[in-house]
Amino acid sequence: MNGSSFLRTGCDVAWCPGCGNYGILKIVNEVFAELEIDPRQTVLVSGIGQAAKLPQYLNINYFNGLHGRALPPATAIKASNRNLTVIAESGDGDMYGEGGNHFLHCIRRNPDLTNIVHNNMVYGLTKGQASPTSPRGLVTPLQVDGVILEPFNPLAVAIALDASFVARAYIGQGEQTRAILKAAILHRGYALVDLLQPCVTFNKLNTYKWFEEHTSALPSDHDPFDRMQAFARACEDDPLRLGIFYQKDKPIFEDQLVAYSDDSRPLFERRVDLDKLAETIRAMG
């Protein structure tokens, strides 16, 4: 590591020039440095896609999984060692499409992890077909007559499921994005950050200019502890609101596991008592 930077040197970056992922990588690096994140006690987990390559460009522990499967291993990693800072990050197709079922149930479990979703509203790795968040009417190489479906609203879904932290940021608003990411990482519980970013190659509608014209900060009087107000704001689609929509204290998944009821040590530090394990299994029926 070079000074306070987590960026790897000497590696080829596979993103197109101008891609919003560069801005996300820069800000994630800055946030890690400002929070004095210990790379030995931090794990980034991603799936498949352009966004999922981000951990490969940082000097940090990471796990690349299957398409749409970032959240299950992230939950398991946190459950096996509660001392770790765990961040699951991937694209909108990976998290909300292939991984949509895991997204729903991760919110229900409420593990103490941060979920950063690079939302460029297309599948950037596989040549720009529509993703779950693509706006209606968007023309793609596959949807040649335009997308006919309403876009998936991850914030409204997360708030409806009573997620403990729900936010949206835009990579063009660097200062606000840094503040949101820091708050999400410091939050105790599941924290969703839907992070808007342009795909400069395949999405010719949702450009930097479009995001500048169609996003706006939440009103100064917004109350992030008011669930109904947060849901109403999440349903607004023009402008797309930016900021922390909803926040709530809830029991943490790993704190409720039987494995930690009488032993707070990470699982890898323990020796398994097979007799005690067999007794526990019998008691469970």
Topology of this structure?
Blueprint: H1 20-34, E1 42-46, E2 61-64, H2 71-80, E3 85-91, H3 92-98, H4 100-109, E4 114-119, H5 154-160, E5 165-170, H6 174-186, E6 191-196, H7 208-214, E7 215-217, H8 227-234, E8 240-247, H9 274-283
Parallel strand pairs: 1-2, 1-3, 3-4, 4-6, 5-6, 7-8
Antiparallel strand pairs: 5-8
Would you mind describing this structure in some detail?
The protein has 285 residues and is α/β, with parallel strands linked by helices. It has one domain: Thiamin diphosphate (ThDP)-binding fold, Pyr/PP domains (Rossmann fold), CATH 3.40.50.970. Helices cover 31% and strands 16% of the residues. It has helices at 20-34, 71-80, 92-98, 100-109, 154-160, 174-186, 208-214, 227-234, 274-283, and strands spanning 42-46, 61-64, 85-91, 114-119, 165-170, 191-196, 215-217, 240-247. Strands 2-1-3-4-6-5-8-7 form an eight-stranded mixed β-sheet, with helices on both faces. It is globular and about 65 Å long.
CATH topology: Rossmann fold
Average pLDDT metric: 92
Tell me what portion of residues adopts beta-strand conformation.
15-25%
Q: How many domains make up the 3D coordinates?
A: 1
Proper CATH architecture: 3-Layer(aba) Sandwich
> What summary fits the major beta sheet?
8 strands, mixed
What is the CA-based Rg, rounded? 19 Å
The strands making up the biggest β-sheet line up spatially as 2-1-3-4-6-5-8-7
Give the topology string: H per helix, E per strand.
HEEHEHHEHEHEHEHEH
Overall outline: globular
**Which residues sit in consecutive blocks of at least 5 with pLDDT less than 50?**
none
The tally of beta strands, per DSSP, is 8
Q: Roughly what percent helix? A: 25-40%
The CATH class is identified as: Alpha Beta
For this structure, what is the CATH homologous superfamily?
A: Thiamin diphosphate (ThDP)-binding fold, Pyr/PP domains
Which structural class should the secondary elements be placed in?
alpha/beta
